[in-house]
Design goal:
single chain, 318 residues, alpha+beta, Aminopeptidase, 2 domains, twelve-stranded mixed sheet, 9 helices
């Protein structure tokens, strides 16, 4: 922030971490995000924040001299030492640097033992939010296509593949799931900038906390007793759908029809739970995955810009 903008903010109020009593007011601003919102929409956002949090949320804002809140920033911790960053939309470009100052204040001294990375999801046209996050140290990860497929009531399970076993999640297989995740990240085209930021076991923990975990919806594929692929699904009851959280195939076993085979499993499992939609998000530059999903009947319904900040350990602090 330049000196003039900094002095303007300090003359009218101060940047601060909000007490929990102020959180409802702050969350209301985030739910509205520069647009008129009804009470139902605000309530849904507040319920989402409570449901997704893996610990105490942090709200930061610029408190004006008349006790108003501006430039609201919410940090929502999630499982796997990651979190989401939500920021209020600036109403004009002149406020971008002010919002960036609040984001920096909120993220500068996060403990890395609890936070490894923060992510933010924006509308692709939200250039003011993007500019504020970039000024605060966030970088672009990917533009995500959100896709969905209508599921029929009689989606059949796929025919078995030769020499292939498909097994559901069990804690005793955790190391095998981690092994496949690691193998699937090699030469990945899906958000490649994420590789290596977190330990794979943290990534697995984060996936497990997405939606409503059901071990029967997590599948491990082994070929001649070697783990080669995983399919991770979760139910999202409030949206009455199943989400495909992750589908990964080890680099040595691609182009063998395993991904298509697992998609058919996903269709069957979704239908068995009487859900009519299967959804997913995919990096739009990952053309092989995009072709796979389009060929399987998925259609895009939204796009989001994903940004991330890697939390750096602080030095010299007590």
């Amino acid at each position: 922030m330049d000196e003039q903008a900094h002095n303007t903010m300090q003359a009218g109020g101060r940047i601060m971490k909000l007490d929990p009593a102020d959180h409802p007011k702050a969350l209301e601003q985030l739910a509205m995000n520069g647009r008129a919102s009804d009470r139902h929409q605000i309530h849904r956002f507040m319920q989402f924040a409570k449901r997704q949090a893996a610990g105490p949320v942090e709200c930061w804002a610029y408190r004006t001299v008349d006790d108003g809140l501006d430039h609201v920033v919410l940090l929502l911790p999630r499982a796997g030492r990651t979190g989401m960053c939500f920021v209020a939309r600036p109403d004009r470009r002149g406020k971008v640097e002010q919002l960036a100052a609040v984001i920096r204040a909120a993220t500068t001294k996060l403990p890395p033992e609890r936070w490894v990375m923060l992510q933010a999801l924006l509308e692709t046209t939200d250039d003011l939010q993007q500019a504020a996050l970039e000024q605060a140290g966030f970088s672009k990860l990917a533009t995500l296509d959100y896709m969905q497929r209508v599921i029929g009531r009689s989606e059949a399970a796929p025919a078995p593949l030769a020499n292939v076993q498909v097994m559901p999640w069990h804690e005793s297989r955790r190391a095998l799931f981690v092994q496949v995740l690691d193998a699937s990240y090699e030469q990945t085209l899906d958000c490649p900038a994420l590789r290596g930021i977190r330990q794979t076991d943290d990534v697995l923990t984060g996936h497990m906390a997405s939606g409503q975990f059901d071990p029967a919806l997590w599948l491990l594929v082994c070929m001649r007793d070697e783990p080669v692929a995983v399919l991770l699904l979760t139910e999202v009851p409030e949206q009455e759908c199943v989400e495909l959280v992750y589908l990964g195939v080890g680099v040595k076993y691609r182009q063998r029809g395993i991904a298509r085979h697992l998609l058919q499993h996903a269709f069957h499992l979704t239908a068995a739970r009487d859900r009519r939609l299967l959804t997913l998000a995919v990096d739009e530059t990952n053309e092989p995955a995009m072709q796979l999903y389009r060929h399987a009947g998925f259609r895009r319904f939204a796009r989001r810009l994903a940004m991330a900040l890697v939390v750096q350990p602080t030095t010299g602090d007590k």
